[in-house]
Design brief:
Radius of gyration: 20 Å
Shape: globular
Number of domains: 3
CATH architecture of the largest domain: 3-Layer(aba) Sandwich
Helix content: 10-25%
CATH superfamily of the largest domain: Nucleotide-binding domain of ferredoxin-NADP reductase (FNR) module
Strand content: 25-35%
Number of helices: 7
C-alpha cells in the first residue's frame, strides 16, 4: 500500500509514514513536534492513544510503558508502525519541532580509538553534510541488531560528513559487542538523525555548566566544542564536570585541553565516587551532583545546565537543580536514556 497517513485528532495535523519509519520518526521527519526524548522505548515521553486503524508494536515490553499505560491502551510512538491510515491522540510541542530535519543515510565505519578502558570513539563517514546541533544524537542500525541504537555525537556539524560517537561498552550488550569486537573498517551502517532536545542554546546569556557521566561524555564534549566554535565563550565560562566511579574511569580532559580557552574559560572538574585502597587521587570526591555548589561558588540559577549520563545521575541532578535550588526549567537541558 501507499505510505500510511497518520492524523492526530487533537489538532488535525496529518503526516505520512515512510517505509522503515516508526510513527515518531515519521512525525519528526515531517516537521511535526511530537513529544519525545530517548526515541528508543525507555522514557515514555512519546505515549499516544490509538483512535482508529491498525499498528504494529516493535517492542511490546518497552520500559517506557507502565502496566497502567498498557491497560489504558497507550502506546509508544517510537516503537509503533502504522499498518494503514490511522488516527491517534498525541501531544505536540513546539519545543519538539526539529530545528534540523532528521534524514536517513548510509555511513561507512572509519575506525575507533580508545578513550578509557571501556569507552571508545567510533567514527563514521556519510555522503553529504553532517548536519546537527551540538548535544544531539543519531540512531544507528548496527549489523546483526534488530532495533536501532541511539548514540550522541561528540563532534560538531561539518561539511565532510563525519559523525563521531563516544560509546561505552556495556556488559552483555549485544550492540556494543558488535561495535567493539566485530565491526570492521569499511563496514556500512544506516544512520538516522539528528534527534534530541538537549542541544546547545546559542543565545544563552549565562555561564554554562556541562555534567557528564559514562558515555554521557559525548554530547557534553559536542556542546563544549560548539560553544567554542560559536564564540559563546569569549565573555563566558564553561564548567565541565565529569563524574566517574574510579580514577581509571575519568576522561575528557585531554579532549577539552585542545579547545581554545581551556584552563581560563573552560574549567574541567573530575569527580570520583569510589577510590580503592592504595590508589592516589587528589581531585574531588563523592557524587558529581554534590560538587556543583561548592565548585561554582554562586547561586545555581545563574547558570545554564546541560547533562548526560546514567539515570541515577540525571535524576539526582534534576532534584538538586529543580527542587533544592529552584533553577528555572528552561535553563536545564537533558535527554533521558535508559
Amino acid at each position: 500500500m501507499s505510505n500510511p497517513i497518520i492524523t492526530n485528532v487533537k489538532d488535525g495535523l496529518t503526516f505520512s509514514q515512510l517505509r522503515g519509519d516508526t510513527i515518531l520518526r515519521a512525525a519528526l521527519r515531517a516537521g511535526v513536534g511530537m513529544t519525545y526524548e530517548c526515541n528508543s522505548g525507555g522514557c515514555g515521553a512519546c505515549k499516544f492513544e490509538l483512535v482508529s486503524g491498525e499498528i504494529q508494536t516493535l517492542w511490546s515490553n518497552a520500559p517506557g510503558l507502565s502496566d497502567r499505560d498498557r491497560s489504558r491502551g497507550r502506546h509508544l510512538a517510537c516503537q509503533c508502525i502504522a499498518l494503514d491510515d490511522i488516527s491517534i491522540k498525541a501531544t505536540i510541542s513546539d519545543e519538539c519541532t526539529p530545528k534540523i530535519s532528521p534524514t536517513r543515510q548510509q555511513a561507512t565505519f572509519l575506525g575507533s580509538e580508545a578513550i578509557t578502558h571501556d569507552i571508545s570513539e567510533f567514527r563514521f563517514l556519510a555522503d553529504g553534510h553532517a548536519n546537527f546541533l551540538p548535544g544531539q544524537f543519531a540512531l544507528l542500525d548496527i549489523p546483526g541488531i534488530e532495533s536501532s541504537r541511539a548514540y550522541s555525537m561528540a563532534n560538531t556539524s561539518n561539511n565532510s560528513g563525519e559523525w563521531h560517537f563516544q560509546i561505552r561498552k556495556v556488559a552483555n550488550g549485544s550492540g556494543t559487542k558488535i561495535l567493539f569486537d566485530e565491526l570492521k573498517e569499511g563496514a556500512k551502517v544506516n544512520l538516522d538523525g539528528p534527534y534530541g532536545l538537549a542541544h546547545l542554546r546559542p543565545d544563552v546569556e549565562r555561564d554554562i555548566v556541562c555534567v557528564a557521566g559514562g558515555s554521557g561524555l559525548a554530547p557534553m564534549i559536542s556542546i563544549a566544542r560548539g560553544a567554542v566554535e560559536s564564540g559563546l565563550l569569549k565573555d563566558k565560562k564553561l564548567f565541565f564536570f565529569y563524574g566517574a566511579r574510579t580514577p581509571s574511569d575519568v576522561c575528557g580532559e585531554d579532549i577539552l585541553a585542545k579547545l581554545e580557552g581551556f584552563g581560563d574559560n573552560i574549567i574541567y572538574v573530575p569527580v570520583v565516587s569510589h577510590i580503592e585502597e592504595g590508589v592516589k587521587w587528589t581531585g574531588q570526591r563523592g557524587f558529581v551532583h554534590q560538587q556543583l555548589s561548592a565548585v561554582l561558588n554562586s547561586a545555581l540559577e545563574n547558570f545554564e545546565f546541560y547533562f548526560a549520563g546514567p539515570p541515577p545521575m540525571t535524576q539526582a541532578l534534576q532534584e538538586l537543580l529543580m527542587i533544592d535550588h529552584k533553577v528555572p526549567f528552561n535553563q536545564i537541558h537533558f535527554d533521558r536514556f535508559f
